[in-house]
Write a structure and sequence with these properties.
single chain; about 400 residues; TIM Barrel; 4-stranded parallel β-sheet; about 40% helix
Length: about 400
């Protein structure tokens, strides 16, 4: 989701053994008390305000899986709140030590930080996207102690255990591609993933909430072919049904749903994917990142983490666990504790078909340590360790390596 303002400038991995040694640490991935006889530990939680919350208990199997795996979130901006972005500044000099620690404690190795950059016309869209990409390059250059840019399969292989979080530069629209050469230009600036459309129509195709379900244009076919040629990933998470299917037909490389869900389980939400589309994506060799955004998971209350895991089960049964990943579609702290004015402005920027309810987040996957809760839920459902490692990041690592190989 993460609709963005036109000119947004967004702004040490711990093993379980290290975690145990740092029990009681004020800012670290602190354990309240290890329960070795039960095979369980407690990890300290902290809210967006920096205050410590109630410790959450996890199994040692869960902690070992999360801390021992490459963890990729294929849609997670560094921060959604504009006021926090402004406080951080373009070089993140305003980020607090507690906020920095939240990134390390999350155990997320790679953040795909794509947003929907808009503009009044083609020129505006191009310039705003240029500013967005340049802004992230500036962040990475300013904070090499905290972040590293992910450009290649080698970068993915090296980031886990490096003490830094990887930033994967992508966009939730391709409206800045006015010519085929623009694809090349943004690739060399660092963009590695491009969602063909946001929710509305552009020169390439149609978005999920457009009035007419049109497919990919001739220009769009040429753009996809150029993306395939240079190794930029094709993402259709927000694209309409026909554009989604067309992309799977046209692309010679795997197509991604970086952050979406099953329409069958969501109650028909237009931002989710039909079984037909999910099968078509799998046929390309792609991977689908599951999002915990409440209205994409279920159309009524209660909506819980178990409903979220139902989407993993459905897609696994439909196309196989090797096509499953995570695309949370939230920052580390989620949407629901944003400042009230920003929260309402965000909701009002979307069509009624988005069907917002009182909450956007789902409890349990709305905080920095959400990957632990997700892993614990997958364990409850009977997923094997290898399956979970694939879901946490291994499957996206594999497919991105295939796409980026030129």
């Amino acid at each position: 989701m993460s609709k963005d303002s036109a000119r947004q400038r967004p702004t040490a991995i711990l093993t379980r053994r290290t975690v145990v040694k740092t029990a009681g640490g004020a800012a670290g991935l602190a354990i309240a008390a290890p329960f070795l006889n039960l095979g369980r530990v407690k990890l300290m939680a902290r809210g967006r305000d920096g205050l410590a919350g109630t410790p959450q208990e996890y199994s040692t199997r869960c902690v070992d899986l999360v801390t021992g795996s490459l963890v990729i979130d294929m849609l997670s901006p560094l921060v959604i709140s504009r006021s926090i972005q402004q406080r951080w500044g373009p070089d993140l000099s305003g980020m607090t030590a507690e906020e920095e620690q939240d990134f390390r404690d999350s155990q997320i190795d790679v953040f795909h930080i794509a947003v929907g950059v808009g503009g009044r016309d083609f020129e505006d869209q191009y310039e705003n996207t240029l500013l967005f990409v340049a802004g992230y390059n500036a962040i990475i250059a300013s904070r090499p102690d905290l972040f590293v840019r992910i450009d290649s399969a080698e970068d993915l292989a090296n980031v886990h255990g490096s003490g830094r979080q990887g930033i994967l530069i992508g966009l939730q629209t391709s409206s800045h591609f006015h010519t085929l050469d623009d694809v090349n230009q943004f690739y060399w600036l660092g963009q590695r993933v491009a969602q063909l459309t946001y929710n509305s129509r552009n020169m390439i195709g149609n978005g999920a909430t457009e009035r007419v379900d049109g497919g990919i244009s001739d220009f769009g076919v040429a753009i996809v072919e150029r993306m395939n040629e240079i190794g930029m990933a094709v993402d259709v998470s927000h694209s309409g049904d026909r554009t989604t299917l067309d992309a799977c037909e046209v692309s010679s490389r795997p197509v991604l749903f970086t952050h979406s869900n099953s329409r069958v389980l969501s109650g028909g939400h237009p931002r989710t994917k039909t079984d037909e589309a999910i099968r078509a994506m799998a046929a390309t060799g792609g991977v689908m990142g599951m999002t915990g955004v409440r209205m994409f998971v279920k159309d009524r209350e209660p909506t819980t983490i178990e409903d979220y895991i139902d989407h993993f089960d459905h897609v696994r049964d439909l196309i196989g666990v090797e096509h499953l990943g995570v695309g949370s579609d939230v920052d580390l702290h989620g949407y629901d504790d944003m400042p009230a004015d920003e929260y309402e402005a965000l909701k009002s920027a979307y069509k009624d078909s988005y069907a917002f309810r009182d909450k956007i987040d789902i409890e349990g996957v709305d905080h920095p340590k959400r990957m632990f809760d997700l892993t614990e839920a997958l364990i409850r459902r009977g997923y094997t360790d290898d399956h979970i490692r694939g879901i946490l990041g291994g499957n996206f690592q594999r497919v991105l390596g295939e796409i980026w190989e030129v």
